[in-house]
Amino acid sequence: MKAVAVESVKACSVNPIDVKVRAKVYDDFPDYYNYVPGDDYQILGYDGAGVVEAVGDDVKDFKSGDEVYYAGSPIRHGSNAELQLVDSLSIARKPTNLSFVQTACLPLTWITAYEALVERMQVKVGEQAAVLIINGAGGVGSVASQIARHVLKLPVVITTTSRQETTDFSKQMGATHTVNHREIPAQIVKLDLAVPLKYIFLTHSTANYLPVATKVCAPFGKICSIVQTKDFPQYGTEMMAKSITFVWELLGTKPWYKTDVESHGKMLEELRQLVEKGVVKCHHTQTFPLTAKGLRDAHEMVESGGSIGKNGLSVDDPAAHGQAFA
Amino acid sequence: MKAVAVESVKACSVNPIDVKVRAKVYDDFPDYYNYVPGDDYQILGYDGAGVVEAVGDDVKDFKSGDEVYYAGSPIRHGSNAELQLVDSLSIARKPTNLSFVQTACLPLTWITAYEALVERMQVKVGEQAAVLIINGAGGVGSVASQIARHVLKLPVVITTTSRQETTDFSKQMGATHTVNHREIPAQIVKLDLAVPLKYIFLTHSTANYLPVATKVCAPFGKICSIVQTKDFPQYGTEMMAKSITFVWELLGTKPWYKTDVESHGKMLEELRQLVEKGVVKCHHTQTFPLTAKGLRDAHEMVESGGSIGKNGLSVDDPAAHGQAFA
């Protein structure tokens, strides 16, 4: 049985998906959110980092005592717990130069952004094209910017931001240009880009941003979203006129359909190396204690919409961790 | 100036797009349909076949007297005329083993289906995957089936049909399996396919078929449509759950945005060779006279929805052409 038990989860993080699953925000979401086969409840939490307690007989790559991290799975219990069972194919060793709480902030956002850019939109390394990332200072937006700039080496990575603080953060995270989220078409025209804007990644409010995305997208461009919406308007958009591709990215598709789950472990192993080499920075900004109260506070923070980067939770004293970005 | 004048259009065909442009069916279609820069009217007609009368100074590939065919362009006047000006990059020599009217039935459907399968969904030659084509006996559906089976060599090409006549025709056109359009999920489950159903091509009623397409589509599959719809329902579909790609195919995108127009000429040249080798069959089924009355009759036939394959119009005596498929 390809599973590995993690002794004492050392840290986790809270993502918008945690809040949505807890609050059952999705009116008509795939059944598998909040669904662990055989149980009538689900322990919340996706991202986690901890120490391996024991491994299944078939597991060769990990052993008791290894420090690991993972994005979790919608069909297993989550990381808001002392012990957690995870699929060994979906985990990797923790970067040595990050704390547990910093590490726990990375996997779900990284895998989501990586799948969106590399697998769904199939952006090529060194492609002479621009990408626009909606909500550059958000959790997924800030790792997507780094993947676009430092892994895929795109010449132009535009993000949307709203105030000086988020603009500064997004530029640290890889944005070559930022535009105000309310003035996207006009400000992008002003940039007078030398390469076509072929890729647009919606990490926030699909319904609001889809029409404007079709306006600025190049013909035959691709738009990817991770935020559910009830329907897509087509009239009044240029989706058909430009033969645009729209694609959903959902981290849960692989674990639910049992397809290529090992790619999650591989992506996190690649991420470990990139972090250790200093190519990728952690977007952790704030630490809460990993307690019932800390989880409530972190959920409230995410629900407020004002977060920059990622909020982590740690079993250790939060004061000992500081901030990844001061 | 890269243009070539065609002396006396010898034949044309009527496609659903001709009917929609004439009847202004599209409530909110791209401005460029029915739009010839500088003129306040547009001569109807896309597909055409005829003889070159004269060429522009820059044109090297064609000369007066050449027999050619083409899909036309939304920003030029159409083929329902005696003389027509076309872009030399978008034309090719007529297959020697087809009549003008048979030839004129091919280009718009072929380019649309080719762009949909090869460029938009990026199906690979010999891929171990299945494709589902909605409306297998239609103009685009019947060439798409041939591209999928004989050019891309997919092992499984499923089409939807409704009656014995359309089922027989679709099988002649490359379908390896047919299913009734009202019983798609159940009949596809029964096929017990050995390869994943990764590609779905909607050539009819996007609004009706999108939800059922998401049910039968494999995770990470792709759905392409050529039929405009006001909006896409997302709730109640499995588009997000399966991280499905949706992409529009519109032949007019290249000529309107002046992008890669020469690909249309190249596709038709490849098609000429495939037709002459007998790999691809013409889907022409019926001939009308190329007169005002003949055009009205052909438009009525297409509007009725009962067409099989393609209806062509010829300046010669229709009785002399017979049917490509008896």
Automatic annotation (TrEMBL), chains A, B:
Residues 3-313 form the Enoyl reductase (ER) domain. SMART domains: PKS_ER (SM00829). Pfam families: ADH_N (PF08240), ADH_zinc_N_2 (PF13602). CDD domains: AL_MDR. It comes from the Eukaryota. One of its GO terms (molecular function) is zinc ion binding. PANTHER family: ALCOHOL DEHYDROGENASE RELATED, RETICULON-4-INTERACTING PROTEIN 1, MITOCHONDRIAL. This is Enoyl reductase (ER) domain-containing protein. It comes from Extremus antarcticus.
